[in-house]
Fold this sequence. Notes:
Blueprint: H1 8-15, H2 34-37, H3 40-52, E1 60-65, E2 68-75, H4 83-95, E3 99-102, H5 106-118, H6 131-134, H7 137-149, H8 154-157, H9 162-169, H10 177-182, H11 185-195, E4 199-202, H12 208-214, H13 218-230, H14 235-247, H15 251-264, H16 274-304, E5 309-314, H17 324-330, E6 334-337
Parallel strand pairs: 2-5, 3-4, 3-5
Antiparallel strand pairs: 1-2, 1-6
Amino acid sequence: MKYASLPRLILATALMFLAGAGLLRAGCEGGVNLLTTMPSDKRAEIEAVTMAAPFPQGNLWQATRDGQTVTILGTYHLDDRRHDAIMQSVAPLLDKAGRLLVEAGPQEVRQLKAHMAREPGMMFLTQGPSLMEQLPPDIWKKLKTAMAARQVPGFMAAKFRPWFAAMTLSAPPCMALDAARENGLDMRLMKLAAEKSLSVQALEPYDTLFKMIDSLSAEDQIEMIEMSLQMESHIQDMTFTTAEEYFAQNSRVIWELTRDNALAQASDRPGFTKADITADFDLMEKVMLTERNAAWIPVIEEAADKGTVFVAFGALHLSGDTGVLHLLEQKGWTIERLPL
Length: 340
């Protein structure tokens, strides 16, 4: 499968998402909202497609069925000062819950760290040719420069697995990514739950995403690097756009913007057609969103059988025909948007 349609934008929004921006170091503030600078007819087209999807706007929801209540919050995984207001709004709702469900709880984080310590090959090339040897010289030179801007020396970058290199490029050089994750909305919720002695449960096993990534061929992963490098000059603006639209409760539009950007690259990629790109995009949507959403529904319903539940996960999982909200609605839940 050719991942021409899955550049850094997919990694930034699907893998880290709703990741987008985060805690940025000095000099990384600001950017341009790409939706505000595109031609008005193109923006109208993207917004029309966005609004045609089920539940296209809104971050905070309530699902009810037969006396059961589930509060659902679409999150932004990295830090932002605007999370303070969100936490003030949702804290009373968390007080009413018997447990908190998140993509990865404290136990899963510990399991992941232990696994990575035992098996560094998950993220690094421990045998075989390095990236310097796998990549064409011009691509390696660009990668080395981009990694150096992110404080990763060339000798270390050469040992990154291709997907990990591409994911590293998904954050602007000015972003303190590790620190940002520690104070993202999901982590803030888990810290508050711990203060309240509230049970925290994971929606999926700790290694779910790694298994998905591991299913990609070496060729696919190498192409991710090339496409990420092509987007290097636009990364901060895409990061800024993602953040702005999340806090405007318009996360669905980021997915459609990503799709549109991917299709626009068809003319720049010899040998690739829009049909190829659409197929690739649909596959990534299936793997990163659709299949995971479907797997979460029985977990949510089982938890709801035991009492009121607060569920938090990346905002991209909310909307669409295969989004969590629509799937719950199909199971007989009444879905209501809550003010935030």
